[in-house]
Write a structure and sequence with these properties.
The complex is a heterotrimer.
Chain A: H1 7-13, H2 20-36, H3 38-42, E1 54-55, H4 71-77, E2 81-82, E3 85-89
Antiparallel strand pairs in A: 2-3
Chain B: E1 8-19, H1 58-70, E2 78-79, E3 82-85, E4 95-98, E5 105-106, E6 109-113, E7 125-137, E8 141-145, E9 148-152, E10 159-165, H2 172-188, E11 201-211, E12 221-226, H3 229-248, E13 256-261, E14 266-272, E15 282-283, E16 289-291, H4 294-301, H5 308-317, H6 323-330, H7 333-345, H8 350-368, H9 392-403, H10 409-422, H11 426-432, H12 441-453, H13 458-465, H14 473-482, H15 489-500
Parallel strand pairs in B: 12-13
Antiparallel strand pairs in B: 1-10, 1-11, 2-16, 3-4, 3-15, 5-7, 6-7, 7-10, 8-9, 11-12, 13-14
Helix pairs in contact in B: 1-4, 2-3, 5-6, 6-8, 7-8, 7-9, 9-10, 12-14, 12-15, 14-15
Chain C: H1 10-19, H2 24-42, E1 45-47, H3 50-65, E2 77-81, H4 108-115, E3 119-124, H5 158-165, E4 171-176, H6 182-188, E5 191-194, E6 214-219, H7 222-232, E7 260-264, H8 274-290, E8 293-297, H9 305-320, H10 339-350, H11 353-366, H12 372-395, E9 398-402, H13 418-422, H14 429-434, E10 438-446, E11 449-457, H15 462-474
Parallel strand pairs in C: 2-3, 2-4, 7-8, 7-9
Antiparallel strand pairs in C: 1-3, 4-6, 5-6, 5-10, 9-11, 10-11
Classes of the chains: A alpha+beta, B alpha+beta, C alpha/beta.
C-alpha cells in the first residue's frame, strides 16, 4: 500500500525542508505506520459514507457586518509589516 | 479581427469569478467594500487566526441560488464545501474554501445574442450551457514594493461565485456576447454588481482548437485572471492563432496554464502540467453539508426578473418596438421598468415612448452622469434613474400631447429638454410657453379661407387640383405664419383639403 | 485553613465563597503560593500572569459583594490548555511556531467562563499542537506526572491533568482529539470528560483535527467535572459543527444503579497490564453489585480504529496547520529569500518532529493517487465504526473499558517509537471517530500510579456517564486525590 512514497515530494507539498537524517528517519517511520494501516486496505467497508453532519439553513450566518481587528492589530501580531500591510519577500508571478 | 481559417474550429470554455453582492464576507462577519485602507476589513476568521472557524453567509448562498434560478439551473438539495490546499501569501489559511463535489448550482444555460449585420439588425441567438456554479472565498491582494511584497487581506473572504460553462463557445465574439449577457443577468437579478474596474468579475479562459468536423477536442490551455471583456476576446484571438500556428507547423499544444499581458496584448506561460498543483482536496470538516430547503428555492424563484431576451422579444413582438430601441432598453432592468411604467400610463404609443427613452432620456442622463464601465468598454454607461428628474408618467404625458396633436414633434423635443431641466409636467410647460397648438376650427376655417383667396397662392391651388399632392404644402406656411405657429398642422391639412375639394 | 485550599473541590470552594468565609483573592493567593512551590517540579503551566489573576479575583469579589455573582463558578480559578484562545494571553500550543502570539480574541469557552465569573487562570502545557500522548512533544517545557516525577503525565492535555493532580488549580480545560483529555486524566488520577462532538463550541480551540477535536472539562471529582461542563456547554453560532439551541438536549441521567453496561469483547486482552485489568474488572464488579446489568458486546471493527484515526486526524491536521507559514503571525525565519523559502524555513524551524511527522503523513494520505486508498477508505471505515458503536449503544447505556492499556510510562521511554505511542489511544479513539461522549474516572492504582476506567455513551448521554461516575466515586476514595509533592 505504501509504494510510491516519495519523501522529497511530500516535504515540498508540505513546505518543510528536511535534512538527510530527517528524511531517512521519517521515511522509515512513515513506512512502518503505513504498514500498520494495512488493516484499512484489507477491511470490508461500506461503499457509501453516511455523513451524519447535515445542517439546515438555520445554521447560516446573517449578512450583518461585524467588528474588524483593524490594520493596527493585524500588523501588531505580524512578523513584519509596512504601512498597514504585511510584508513578505518579493513574490515572483505564480511562484507557488 | 479574428480570422480563424475555415478548416479550424475553436472551442472555448469560461470560468467566471463574480464577487457576490453582500455586506459581510462569505465565511466571516467582516464587512467588505472597495477603496478601504489595507487590512481594515479583516477579522480573526479572515486572517485565519488559530482557532477561528468559518460560518457560511446566508445571503451569499441565496445570491448563488438566485443566479442558478436565473439561468434555469438545478438547485441540489445539498451542497458542501471542500478545502483546496496550496501555499501562497495572499491565501490566509493556505487552503481555500470552495465547492468541489457538491456545488450550490448545477446546470442551466445562458442565452446570448451575437452582433447583427448592422446596429439595427438583431444578430443570431444561441444558448451556452452552464456546467455548474460554486460558492467560494476570494484571496487577498499582493503588491510589490521595492525588494519585497505587501499583503492586504481586505479582499480575502469576499464571496465569489465561480460560474463554469460547458465548452460551448465557438468564437471570440461568442465569448464576448456570453459575458455581456451574463453580466446583464447578474446585475439585473441583483446577484452581483460586476464592476470590473473594482475587480468584481474575473475570468479564466480555456481554449482549444480542432480541425472542423473532428470530434475529439484538442489539447486546451487555460489563461487565468482576465479582468475585462476585451482581455477575454483578445486572449481567445491570440490563443486561437497561436495554437493553429503551432499545429500547422507540426508541433503539439502543451496543456498549460497561461497569463495575459493586456498592455503587450500577449499571452505567456505560467506553468505546464508537470508543475500542476496537487491541491489535496477534501471535505471541509468545519462546515457541515448544507441542506437547501425547497421553500427557500420557491421564495427566491419569485425574485427572478424577466429574462433579458424574453423581454426583448416581448418589446418587439407585443409592443411593436424597433429592435434598436428594444435592445437598448432591455440591457438595463431599471430602464426597462421605467419604460414599462411610462407605457402603462399611455399604452397607445410604446414606440414613441421607447424612442424618447432610448435616445433623448439616455443621452441626457449619460451627460449628467459620467464614464462607462471598465470591464466592458463597449457597453453604454450605466445610468442612474434614481436621480432622473422626469417621472415615467410625465414622459407618457409628453408623448400623449404629441399624439393628440397638441404640440408638434419638434416642439416635443423642446418640451422634453425643459422637463429634464425642471422636472415639470409637459402640459404645464406647454401652457407656460404658450406652445399649445390652435385647434379652434372656427377661427382656423376663417384664416384658411382668407389664405385660399389670396391670389399669391392661386398657382399652387391649380397644381394641387391638377393632381400634385405636394402643392398643398405651399398653402400651409402662410396659415402657420398667420397663427404664429400655433395652429394644429393636422387640422390645417384637413381644412385645406375640405375647402379645395 | 488557607494552606489546605488547594486540596478542596471546586464545589466546596464555591460553597465557601458563597457563604462569605472565603474570598476569591484569598483562594488565588493560596494557589499562587502553591504554584511557586510546585510548578517547577511538575511543569504543568507554561504561563501564569499573577497580577492578572489577582485583578480578576478582586473583580469577582467585588461582583459578589455587590450581589452580582454569576453562579457556582464565581471566583473559582480554571486553568486553560494552551490551545484555547483567551484574549490578551499567549496562544502557543506549546509550539515554537506560535511562541510570539498573544491572542487578540476570546474563544467561546473563555467567554463562557468569564460570563460564569470564573478566574481564567494561566496556560497549561501540552504536546505541540495537541499531537502526542505524553506532553513530551511540548517545545516549551517538560511536564511530569505528579504521582511519579520520572514519568509522563499523559497527553496531549498533560498540563491540564498534572495541574489538578498537583493541587495547582481545582478545574482545568483540556481538548481531546483521540484521547487527549481522558488518557492524561487516567495517568494522573483525575476525571476527564470528552463531550459529544458538537456539545461545546470549538470557536477558539486551535484545530488539530477538526472533525475529532472537542474541548472538555477536567477536575478531581465527577461532581466538579459536571460543574465545569455545565458552564461550557451552550450553542454558538460561530461553530457550524456545534449543536444549535434546539438539538442539544441532554439525555436524563436516570438511576445509575439501573444502567446497562456493555463490556466490549476482547478489549481487556489487548496488551492491557494486569493491574489495569484488575482495577477495571473491580469497577465492573462494583457496578454489578449495585444492580447494573453487565453484558458483553461485539465491536468487530475495533482494530480499524487506530489506522482510521491516524489517517483522518493527520489529513485534517496537514491542512489545519498549513496556515502557520510565518506570514501573518507566529514564527518567521530570518533565513529566507523568496516567499516559498521563507515559508518553508519558518515551518521547518517552527514545528517539532512529531508535528512534522504527522503533517507528512497527512499530506501523503490526501495526495493525488493515494487519497482513495487512504483518506477515502478511512472515511468509510469511520462510518462503519460509528455504526457499530451506535448499534452497541442501542442495547446498553454505556460501554466500559480501561482508559489506557498501561499506567504512565517513564519519560523518554517511548519517544523513539511513534507507532507504539499511537497505540496508547486504542480505547479512547473510537469515541472521537464516532462523536460520542466519554469519561475517564479514577478506579485504582497500579503500584503508585493511578489507573482509570473509561465509559462511552450514546450522543448527548453525558448525564448518564457523570451519574455512573458519581456512583463509583461515592463508594471509593479516589475523588479529590492529589499526589504528595
Amino acid at each position: 500500500m505504501a509504494e510510491g512514497f516519495d519523501i522529497d515530494h511530500l516535504a515540498k507539498l508540505a513546505r518543510l525542508s528536511l535534512t538527510a537524517e530527517e528524511k531517512a528517519l521519517y521515511s522509515s517511520q512513515l513506512n512502518q505506520i503505513l504498514g500498520h494501516f494495512q488493516a484499512l486496505a484489507d477491511a470490508d467497508l461500506p461503499a457509501t459514507i453516511d455523513d451524519a453532519r447535515v445542517v439546515d439553513e438555520a445554521a447560516l450566518r446573517s449578512d450583518e457586518p461585524g467588528p474588524v481587528l483593524g490594520a493596527e492589530a493585524v500588523t501588531r501580531i505580524a512578523p513584519a509589516s509596512r504601512d498597514g500591510q504585511i510584508s513578505v519577500p518579493r513574490v515572483v508571478d505564480d511562484e507557488s | 479581427m479574428s480570422n480563424v481559417p475555415s478548416d479550424w474550429e475553436v472551442v472555448i470554455g469560461l470560468e467566471v469569478h463574480v464577487q457576490l453582492h453582500t455586506r459581510a464576507k462569505v465565511f466571516a462577519s467582516s464587512p467588505w467594500g472597495f477603496g478601504k485602507e489595507p487590512n481594515e476589513q479583516v477579522d480573526p476568521v479572515v486572517l485565519g487566526l488559530p482557532g477561528t472557524l468559518p460560518v457560511v453567509n446566508r445571503e451569499a448562498v441565496e445570491k448563488s441560488i438566485l443566479f442558478g434560478l436565473v439561468v434555469g439551473a438545478e438547485i441540489p438539495e445539498h451542497c458542501a464545501w471542500d478545502r483546496k490546499n496550496y501555499f501562497y501569501p495572499d491565501n490566509p489559511k493556505n487552503y481555500q474554501l470552495t465547492q468541489k463535489d457538491f456545488p450550490v448550482v448545477v446546470g442551466g444555460q445562458v442565452e446570448i445574442e451575437l452582433p447583427g449585420a448592422s446596429r439595427n439588425v438583431m444578430g443570431e441567438h444561441k444558448f451556452i450551457r452552464i456546467h455548474h456554479a460554486h460558492l467560494e472565498e476570494d484571496v487577498g491582494k499582493l503588491s510589490h514594493a521595492g525588494s519585497g511584497s505587501l499583503v492586504d487581506y481586505n479582499r480575502a473572504g469576499v464571496p465569489l461565485l465561480e460560474i463554469v460553462t460547458e465548452p460551448d463557445l465557438r468564437s471570440s465574439a461568442e465569448a464576448e456576447a456570453f459575458l455581456r449577457s451574463l453580466v446583464a443577468m447578474l446585475t439585473q437579478a441583483g446577484v452581483a454588481d460586476c464592476d470590473m474596474e473594482k475587480g468584481q468579475l474575473r475570468c479564466d479562459c480555456n481554449v482549444s482548437v480542432r480541425r472542423r468536423g473532428a470530434e475529439k477536442l484538442g489539447t486546451r490551455t487555460e489563461t487565468k485572471n482576465l479582468n475585462s471583456i476585451s482581455s477575454v476576446r483578445d486572449t481567445v484571438i491570440y490563443e486561437t492563432a497561436r495554437q493553429i500556428r503551432e499545429l500547422e507547423a507540426g508541433r503539439s499544444i502543451t496543456q498549460e496554464t497561461r497569463g495575459w499581458n493586456a498592455e503587450l496584448a500577449r499571452g505567456y506561460v505560467l506553468r505546464d502540467k508537470e508543475d500542476a498543483h496537487d491541491y489535496r482536496y477534501f471535505p471541509d470538516p468545519d462546515i457541515p453539508t448544507l441542506k437547501i430547503s425547497r421553500e427557500t428555492v420557491t421564495r427566491l424563484a419569485k425574485q427572478v426578473p424577466e429574462n433579458l431576451y424574453d423581454r426583448q422579444r416581448r418589446y418587439v413582438e407585443k409592443l411593436g418596438l424597433p429592435y434598436t430601441a428594444a435592445s437598448v432598453l432591455v440591457n438595463d432592468r431599471a430602464l426597462a421598468e421605467w419604460f414599462e411604467a411610462a407605457v402603462a400610463a399611455h399604452p397607445a404609443n410604446p414606440s414613441g415612448i421607447a424612442n424618447l427613452v432610448a435616445n433623448d432620456l439616455l443621452r441626457d442622463l449619460a451627460a449628467s452622469a459620467g464614464a462607462a464601465g471598465a470591464f466592458d468598454e463597449a457597453a453604454p454607461a450605466p445610468v442612474s434613474l434614481a436621480s432622473c428628474p422626469i417621472k415615467p408618467a410625465q414622459l407618457a404625458g409628453l408623448v400623449k400631447l404629441t399624439d393628440d396633436g397638441v404640440i408638434s414633434k419638434q416642439q416635443a423635443k423642446e418640451v422634453f429638454a425643459e422637463m429634464f431641466k425642471t422636472g415639470q409636467d409637459a402640459a404645464a410647460i406647454v401652457d407656460a410657453k404658450g406652445l399649445r397648438q390652435n385647434s379652434d376650427t372656427g377661427e382656423l376655417e376663417k384664416i384658411v379661407q382668407e389664405v385660399i383667396a389670396d391670389p399669391a397662392v392661386a398657382k399652387s391651388i391649380a397644381e394641387y387640383r391638377a393632381g400634385n399632392e405636394k402643392a398643398i404644402n405651399a398653402l400651409k406656411g402662410p396659415i402657420m405664419k398667420r397663427t404664429q405657429g400655433k395652429a394644429n398642422p393636422v387640422l390645417i391639412d384637413q381644412l385645406l383639403r375640405k375647402f379645395l375639394a | 485553613m488557607a494552606d489546605a485550599l488547594h486540596t478542596l473541590s471546586a464545589a466546596e470552594l464555591g460553597r465557601r465563597l458563597a457563604a462569605g468565609t472565603l474570598t476569591s483573592r484569598a483562594l488565588c493567593e493560596a494557589l499562587l503560593v502553591r504554584y511557586q512551590a510546585v510548578n517547577e517540579k511538575v511543569g504543568a503551566f507554561t504561563h501564569l500572569d499573577q497580577a492578572d489573576v489577582l485583578a480578576q479575583a478582586d473583580a469577582s469579589d467585588a461582583r459578589r459583594k455587590a450581589g452580582q455573582g454569576r453562579g457556582p463558578l464565581e471566583g473559582i480559578p480554571v486553568a486553560i490548555k494552551d490551545n484555547i484562545a483567551v484574549k490578551g494571553q499567549p496562544l502557543t500550543c506549546s509550539s515554537k511556531m506560535l511562541a510570539p502570539l498573544v491572542s487578540p480574541y476570546d474563544s467561546h469557552v473563555a467567554e463562557r467562563l468569564r460570563a460564569a465569573g470564573a478566574i481564567l487562570y494561566g496556560r497549561l502545557n501540552m504536546d505541540e499542537f495537541a499531537m502526542g500522548s505524553s506532553t513530551e512533544n511540548s517545545a516549551i517545557r517538560k511536564t511530569f506526572n505528579p504521582w511519579d516525577l520520572a514519568r509522563i503525565p499523559g497527553g496531549s492535555s498533560g498540563g491540564s491533568a498534572a495541574a489538578l493532580a498537583a493541587g495547582l488549580v481545582p478545574l482545568s480545560l483540556g481538548s481531546d482529539t483521540g484521547g487527549s483529555i481522558r488518557q492524561p486524566a487516567s495517568h494522573c488520577g483525575v476525571v476527564g470528560l470528552k463531550p459529544t462532538y458538537g456539545l461545546i463550541s470549538r470557536f477558539g480551540l486551535v484545530a488539530f483535527a477538526s472533525s475529532l477535536d472537542q474541548i472538555g472539562p477536567m477536575a478531581r471529582s465527577v461532581e466538579d467535572c459536571e460543574l465545569l461542563l455545565n458552564a461550557l456547554a451552550s450553542a454558538d453560532a460561530r461553530d457550524m459543527t456545534c449543536f444549535g439551541p434546539s438539538d442539544r438536549a441532554l439525555t436524563a441521567a436516570g438511576d445509575a444503579k439501573k444502567l446497562r453496561i456493555g463490556i466490549p469483547k476482547g478489549f481487556l486482552g489487548k496488551g492491557v497490564a494486569p493491574e489495569v485489568a484488575a482495577a477495571v474488572n473491580a469497577a465492573v464488579e462494583f457496578y454489578r453489585a449495585q444492580g447494573c446489568a453487565i453484558s458483553e458486546v461485539e465491536l468487530p471493527s475495533a482494530d480499524l480504529a487506530v489506522p482510521t484515526y491516524y489517517v483522518v486526524a493527520t489529513a485534517e491536521a496537514s491542512s489545519n496547520l498549513g496556515r502557520y507559514d510565518g506570514v501573518r503571525y507566529g514564527h518567521r525565519s530570518t533565513a529566507a529569500g523568496t516567499p516559498v523559502e521563507m515559508m518553508t524555513a519558518s515551518r521547518s524551524e517552527g514545528f517539532g518532529p512529531e508535528v512534522k511527522r504527522r503533517i507528512l503523513l497527512g499530506t501523503f494520505v490526501l495526495s493525488a493517487g493515494y487519497a482513495d486508498a487512504y483518506y477515502v477508505r478511512a472515511l468509510r471505515a469511520r462510518a462503519k465504526i460509528r455504526a457499530e458503536y451506535l448499534a452497541a449503544l442501542a442495547g446498553v447505556d454505556v460501554l466500559l473499558t480501561p482508559t489506557v492499556p498501561t499506567p504512565a510510562f517513564k519519560v523518554g521511554e517511548k519517544a523513539s517509537d511513534p507507532l507504539q505511542l499511537y497505540l496508547e489511544d486504542i480505547f479512547t479513539i473510537p469515541a472521537n471517530l464516532a462523536g460520542l461522549p466519554a469519561i475517564s474516572v479514577p478506579c485504582g492504582k497500579s503500584g503508585h500510579l493511578p489507573v482509570g476506567f473509561h465509559l462511552v455513551g450514546a450522543p448527548l448521554s453525558e448525564a448518564k456517564l457523570l451519574a455512573a461516575g458519581r456512583l463509583f466515586e461515592a463508594a471509593h476514595g479516589y475523588a479529590h486525590q492529589q499526589a504528595a509533592l
